[in-house]
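sry for the spam today, last one i promise. C-alpha cells for design, 293 residues
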C-alpha cells in the first residue's frame, strides 16, 4: 500500500472470515515508529481481538442505519441502487432478529460532503511518497515525479497524481479540509451520543460492482461507472474503525457488503457484531474461479 494520504489512509486485514480478521488484527495492531499515527493506539489494544467473537454479540446493541447518499454519483432512484438496498433491507432485518435495536434512519449533517472533503486532501501525497522512497536506497526511482515520468502509470491514474504535484502539507487550504472533516466527525459523535448508538450501519457501496472500461489502460478520460456509490471513505475521514462483511447477493448475483462503523478504538465491539451476523447468515460464497487453498 503506497503512502498517499497518511492522515486518512487505513490498512486492515482482508480475510475470508471475521475470525481470520481478528487473528490478523492481533498481529497488525500496535505502535509502529514508521507510522506516527499509530501512537494513538497505545493503551487501547486488547490482549486479543479474538475474545470479542461471540455469536450472541449483537444482543442489546443499538445500531443506527445511514440511508443518506455519500457519493456524488449515488442515485437512490436507480434500479441498481434499489437492488443493493433490497439486500440491505434483509440484512437489517437479520441484525434486528439477532437482538440488536435498530434506529432507522439516522441523519448526519454534512454527510454529502464526505467524498469531496476526502478527495480534497491533496497536500500530503508527494511528500509522503518521496519520504517513503528515501528510505529505500536501492529503489529504481526516488520521487513521485520520477514515477510519473516513467510512463508506466496508467493515464487515468497519472492524471490524478499530476494534480498532486507541488502541493505541501503547510498549504493553508489543507486547514480547511481538516476543519471540514472535524466538523463532520463532531456531527457523528454528537448524533451517536444523543441516540445512544453503539455503531452505524450502511452499505459498503450503494451500487453494484461494474465492469472496468475496456480502454482504462490507455484513456485518461475513460468512461465507466467505477466507484459509484462508494461509502468507504466515511470511516477513514473520521478516523473511526469500520468492518465490511458480506450481506448477500443482488438479483443480478452480484455481492453486497454491509459496513459497520464505531467510535475510536471500538474494533473489538465491531468484530463481535460482524461475527454474530456472519455466523447467523453465512453469506460468503467462494469465487468459482478460485480453487481452494
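last one done:
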Amino acid at each position: 500500500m503506497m503512502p498517499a494520504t497518511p492522515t486518512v489512509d487505513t490498512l486492515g486485514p482482508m480475510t475470508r472470515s471475521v475470525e481470520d480478521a481478528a487473528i490478523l488484527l492481533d498481529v497488525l495492531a500496535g505502535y509502529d515508529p514508521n507510522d506516527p499515527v499509530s501512537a494513538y493506539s497505545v493503551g487501547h489494544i486488547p490482549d486479543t481481538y479474538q475474545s470479542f467473537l461471540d455469536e450472541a454479540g449483537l444482543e442489546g446493541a443499538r445500531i443506527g442505519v445511514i440511508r443518506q447518499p455519500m457519493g456524488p454519483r449515488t442515485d437512490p432512484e436507480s434500479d441498481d441502487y434499489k437492488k443493493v438496498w433490497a439486500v440491505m433491507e434483509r440484512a437489517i432485518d437479520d441484525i434486528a432478529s439477532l437482538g440488536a435495536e435498530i434506529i432507522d434512519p439516522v441523519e448526519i449533517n454534512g454527510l454529502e460532503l464526505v467524498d469531496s472533503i476526502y478527495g480534497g486532501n491533496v497536500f500530503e501525497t508527494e511528500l509522503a511518497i518521496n519520504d517513503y522512497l528515501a528510505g529505500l536506497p536501492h529503489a529504481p526511482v526516488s520521487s513521485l515525479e520520477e514515477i510519473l515520468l516513467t510512463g508506466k502509470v496508467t493515464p487515468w491514474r497519472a492524471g490524478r497524481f499530476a494534480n498532486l504535484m507541488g502541493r505541501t502539507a503547510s498549504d493553508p487550504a489543507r486547514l480547511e479540509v481538516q476543519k471540514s472533516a472535524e466538523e463532520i466527525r463532531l456531527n457523528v459523535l454528537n448524533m451517536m451520543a444523543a441516540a445512544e448508538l453503539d455503531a452505524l450501519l450502511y452499505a459498503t457501496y450503494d451500487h453494484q460492482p461494474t465492469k472496468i472500461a475496456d480502454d482504462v489502460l490507455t484513456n485518461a478520460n475513460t468512461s465507466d461507472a467505477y466507484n459509484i456509490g462508494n461509502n468507504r471513505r466515511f470511516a477513514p475521514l473520521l478516523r473511526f474503525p469500520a468492518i465490511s462483511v458480506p450481506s448477500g447477493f443482488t438479483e443480478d448475483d452480484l455481492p453486497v457488503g454491509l459496513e459497520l462503523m464505531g467510535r475510536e478504538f471500538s474494533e473489538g465491539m465491531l468484530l463481535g457484531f460482524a461475527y454474530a451476523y456472519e455466523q447467523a447468515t453465512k453469506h460468503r460464497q467462494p469465487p468459482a474461479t478460485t480453487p481452494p487453498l
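The chain has a mean pLDDT of 93. ok im logging off now
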